[in-house]
Amino acid sequence: MAAYWTAYQRDFHDRLYRGEALVRLSPGAELTGPLAVAVAASGRTDDDGWIHATVPIESVDHAHGEFLRLGTDVEVLEPPELRERIARTAAEPAAKYGNFAVRGDH
């Protein structure tokens, strides 16, 4: 039974995470689940302390929400369609607020 369960979990994981993303993560990024495991296994730290890692993703849609949750603690480098989608999502509220945040007006 234990061998079956291990094989089932591995198969489930392989079917669930069909893609990968290359990301940069801040040293303070709070990671959980498969993302944390992948970073621990494949991450390499740059001179500035940020970590480059290839992480599993279910889909661009799912990864979009997961990475937005990390805010400025993550930079998606690949795939291009995920990077572009996050950039568009981040630009929309910035456009709504104009230059307020940049100027520091109150």
Task: Walk me through the structure.
This protein is of the alpha+beta class. The protein is built from five helices and four strands; from the N terminus they run H-E-H-E-E-H-E-H-H. The protein has helices spanning 2-16, 33-42, 60-69, 80-97, 100-103, and strands spanning 19-25, 44-45, 51-57, 74-78. It has a four-stranded antiparallel sheet. Strand 2 and strand 3 form a beta hairpin. Helix 3 packs across helix 4 (80-97). It is globular, with a radius of gyration of 17 Å. The protein starts with a helix and ends with a helix.
Which key phrases capture this entry?
5 helices, 20% strand, 106 residues, 4 strands, single chain, alpha+beta, globular
What's this entry about, in short?
This protein is an alpha+beta fold. The protein contains five helices and four strands; from the N terminus they run H-E-H-E-E-H-E-H-H. The longest helix has 18 residues, at 80-97.
Q: What's the Cα radius of gyration?
A: 17 Å
Overall helicity: 40-55%
Number of helices: 5
Which stretches are low in confidence, meaning pLDDT under 50 for 5 or more residues running?
A: none
